[in-house]
Amino acid sequence: MAIENKKGWIFWFNPLKYSSDKWLYALHRLTGIALGLYLMAHVFETSRILDGPITWNSTMVFLDWPFGVHFGPYILSGILLAATFHALNGLRLTITESGLLMPKPYRIEYPYKAKSLRGWNMVLKILLGIFMIIISIFGIVYIFTGVIL
Amino acid sequence: MELMLKGFGEVVKTVTLRVRRYDPEKKELPKYMEYKVPVQRGMTVLDGILYIKEHIDPSLAARYSCRMGICGSCAMIINNRERLACQTQILDLGKDLIKVDPMGNYDLVKDLVPDLTKLFRNHESIKPYIIRQEEKVTGEFLQLPEERELYSMFTECIMCGACLSACPTMATDELYLGPQALAQSFRYIADSRDIGFNERLNLLDSKHGVWRCHFAGACSDVCPKGIDPALAIQLLKGMLAKNVFVKYQQKPAKIGPDRKSILETAQS
Predict the structure, then answer these.
(1) B117-245 adopts what CATH topology?
(2) CATH topology of domain B11-114
(3) Residue from the list B103, B114, B234 with its beta carbon closest to the beta carbon of A96
(4) CA Rg, chain B, in Å?
(5) Interface pTM, i.e. ipTM
(6) How many angstroms from the chain centroid is the CA of residue B15?
(7) What tens digit of pLDDT does each residue of B52-84 get?
């Protein structure tokens, strides 16, 4: 009797041996889930203000110094990176998935390199990388030092 | 002549093939078994599997037919990537341990044989034939070479099913049409002889149609024939999005003179 041989959701996060698009896909899913969880936590966190200023202040201090370690800026940097990546990659996907900047169907030639993953799509991927670097430098310096570059 | 054949048939090295075995008659889960295979120059993974079958373990099951990348029977996961076993050189992989798995996202019949029913049913469901209004067609449909270029790449599909195995959407969505069927539907919609866009629209524009694709590009990456199913799906999405505002127009290609009349005029 034949048995089921599905790869399952764990395969979303396995971009090894595939193209760069699969890496971005895996990261997009991962950051999407992380941001979704963060959003819920964020709503809960800001709702603490309803319990008065003392609760609010202690929550803020706890989030900045969780368990006695000054870990707050690292969490913020992580959220910043996740949100930036998710937004920029989302823009790239909006453009490419609506068929814009996609090549016309072409003639297959050896060695087989899919043009939909190259060309303009590659330009967008490189732009995504450049913007990621710029935004993360500015953002992380601001989060840790409060200085706007 | 002897110079040309130098090194031919010599055993270069010995590799280990780690093959996933599953026997439907024994009620056991799939498990890996290792086989030592002497490798000659020019030996493919399929040759290695056949060597195991002939010399070590005749119970190993694999599907193959043409051994030259035409029939698309021997697609399997070799070192964690979908490849045709007959086109993958063992020495090109450059490793001493080669992991051979059956393709994922399909039901497993035995050892390396997946049940491709899903692939063929999905392909069937998008109506893979030219749809016309005429009841009786007398001559051939006329088409320019430029019009053929718009879809010719997708006619190369050998239905090996590697794209469905590499697709991350397919890994969780049982009813998804899959890159192969969607690329084929684009092939018929883009064909200037066809007017079946509206007939296929309901299926494509559904929950398990084109919008389930999130452009991971794995299908285009693994296709052993160099077809670009991801491109077809993105172009289909653009087509469907435009169709909301401006209805997609398909002009059926003209029909040429029928053969009988040509023969008659030639004879007279």
Answers:
(1) Fumarate Reductase Iron-sulfur Protein; Chain B, domain 2 (1.10.1060)
(2) Ubiquitin-like (UB roll) (3.10.20)
(3) B234
(4) 23
(5) 0.90
(6) 28
(7) 999 999 999 999 999 999 999 999 999 999 999
